[in-house]
Amino acid sequence: MGAAVVLSVAAFVGSASGAGAGGVSGAAAAAGPIKVGAISSLTGPVPFPESSAAAKAVFDQVNATGGINGRKIKYIVADDKADPALAAQAARRLVDQDGVVGMAGSASLLECAVNAAFYKQKGVYAIQGTGVDPVCFNSPNISAVNTGPYLGTTAGLYFASEVLKDTKVCMIFYNIPGFESAVKQSVARWTAITGKELTYFDMSLGLADDPTPQIVKAKEKGCQAIVHNGLEAHAIVWGKALKAQGLTVHEIALTSAYTDKVAKELAQAGAEGIYANSEFEPYLSSSPALKDWRALMKKARVPQTSFAEGGYLAATFFVQALRTINGPITRKSVAAALLRLKPIKHPMVGSPYSFGRGSAHNPNRASKFVQVQNGRWVVVTPKWLVLPTA
Amino acid sequence: MIQSAVAGLVSGGAYAALGVCIVLVYRMVGVLNFAQAAIGAFGAYATFVLYENGVAYAPAVLLGAATGGAVAALLGYVMSTWFSESGPEVRSTVTIAALITLFAVAFRAFGDSPRSVPDPFSGAAFEVGGVAIGATGAVAIAGAGAIALAVGLGLRHTVTGVRLRALSERPTTAELVGIRARRLSIGVWAFAGAVSALAVLAIAPSRTSDFLGLGMLVVPALAAALIGLLRSLELAFLGGLAIGLIEGVAANFPSVSPYRQALPFFVIVTVLLWTERSEVWDARR
Questions:
Q1: N or C, which terminus of chain A has less Cβ within 10 Å?
Q2: ipTM
Q3: Which domains does chain B have, with CATH numbers?
Q4: Could you list the residue ranges that cross the membrane (chain B) (predicted)?
C-alpha cells in the first residue's frame, strides 16, 4: 500500500510540474500543503518535546502570514518514545505514506542512528533541532543546528584548559552505550587543538551510580577541572557530592545541565559554581538576540528551553531553504535547496548554519559558557567561543 | 584504594538496610520479596512529593515511611489472603508482579523525570581516610546496623519475637495455639516496608533518583541478603557493607569499573556456588 501511495504522489507531483511555468501557482494550490516531518522523543525516558513544538510555532507563523508562495506547511510530528522500532516505523510512515518533503526540528536520543540510512536511500534531508546520537553529526543527509554532545565535550575541555587555564583537566563521563568511541574522538579533537592530555579519564559511571568514588579518585589525581556529561538530575548530585568531599574544582557540564532547576537546587544546597555549555544564545539570559524567539514561544505557549531554541532555529532555516525554491516544492527540490544553501548567520548561534554536500555535518561550533552564581545562571563568556578546527 | 572503598560505604549502608529487610521478610513469612526496594522507593517518592509541596522534612519522612509501610502491608495482606497456602516459588513470583506493578503505578503517579532530593544532613559529618562521609550516609550505616541488631535481639528475647519465630517455623501449629498469624505477618511486612523507605531516602541524595534506578537497588540488596544466607540479619548487614566496599574499590580499576553494576550478580553466584557445593559434590558421589 505504501508503494502505491508513493507512486500516486509521484504521479501527482509529476503532473503538477508538467503544468508548466505559467501554472505554478495553480498547480501549487492543487498540490495541497507542503508536508514536513519530525520524529522526536515526546514521551519516554528522555523526552525533548519542546524542539518540535517550537518548530511548529515557526511553521504556524509562516502559515498565518501567507505560507510559502501561498502554500501552507503541514507539520507532522511523530513520537518515537526513545524506542528504535517506533523511530524506524515513524520514518517509513512519514516518508512513504505521508510523503514529507523533508524533516525539521526532530529531537531524539536515537532517531538519527536508526533512520540515517533510510533517509539517504530515499533522498530525504533533515535539519535536526536537537541532535544527540553520533550519527546526527555523521550523515550526509542530516545537519543539526545544535553543537551536540561531542563538539560540546571538546568545547568543555577547551574552556577548562584555554579559558580557565587549568593544567590538570579531568573527564568523568556517564557511560551511555553506543557513545563511547564518539566521546573518545571528542577528547582526541581537544588534544589535537591544544596538544594537551587529560589527567584523569573515566567513562565507567552508570547513570544511577553514586559519583563519589570517582570524585575521590579525581581528588587523588589533583584535578583542577572536571568535565562531565550529567543530565539535570546528575548535575545536582554532582554539585552536592563535590561539596561533601570538599573538592574545589571547576565543574563543567554539557548543555543538558543548563536549566533553572539546577541553579535553584544547587543554590539551596550551597553547592554553586558549576559551568555549563550553552550551544545557542543562553536562553536564561536577557539577550536581545532572543527577542523574536521569546515572543513566539510565549505566544505558542512552548516552554522556553535550549531545546525550544533548537527547534525554532531548525524550522527557521528550513523555511529559508523553502523560500529559495523556484518551481514545485518536492522532496528533490528541497534536497537541492538545502545542499546549495548559503551559510546562514543567525544572532542566536555563534557560527553560521550550513548544510552542503559533505559526508558529515556539525556546523555549530560555537559555545557560550554559563555559571551558577547566587541561584542564577550567569553568562561568563559574553563572546562566542568558537572551536578552532584542529 | 582505601579512600574509594570508604566512598562506597554509604551505598553499602543502604544495601545493608534493604538486605536486612529482605532477610526479615523471608525468615518470618517465607517470601523472597523482589519488590522490597521498589516499596522503599515508593515511600521515598511520597516523601519527595510532600516535601516539594511545603511539608517540613521530618514529618515528610515519617509520612513517607508510613507510605512504604502501607504499601508493604497491602502486599502482605494480598499474600496472606490468597497465597498463604502457596509455596515459596509462587509467593516470590507474586512479589515480582508487585515490582512491575509498582514501577507502572509510580510512573503514572510521579512521572518519569528524576526528582530533586532533599538532603537534610548535607555537608560532611566526619572523615575516614580522607573521604568525607555525610551525616546521611553515616545515619544509613548506623541505622542498618542498629536495625539488624535490634531485630535479631527482639526475635530472641521478646514475646512477639517468639511468636514470630513460631509462626515462621510451624505456621499452622502457631495458629492453632492461638497466635494471630495474619496480623503478625502483616506487621512484619509493614515494618520492613517502612525501613526500606528510610534506606532508600538515605541513598537517594547521592544518586540520580529516578524510580527505576531506586527500585533496582533490590539487586545489591538481594546479594547482601544471600550473604546472610537469607537467615542471618547480621551477616546480611555486613554483606551489604561489603558490596558497597567492593563497588567503591572497583572504581579504581579501569578493567573492572564498567562492570560495577554486575558485581552483585557475581557475588550472588559465588555465594550460591559456595553454599550449594556440598549438594553438588554429594550428587557426584
A1: N
A2: 0.73
A3: 1-283 (1.10.3470)
A4: 6-26, 31-51, 57-78, 90-111, 131-155, 186-205, 211-230, 235-253
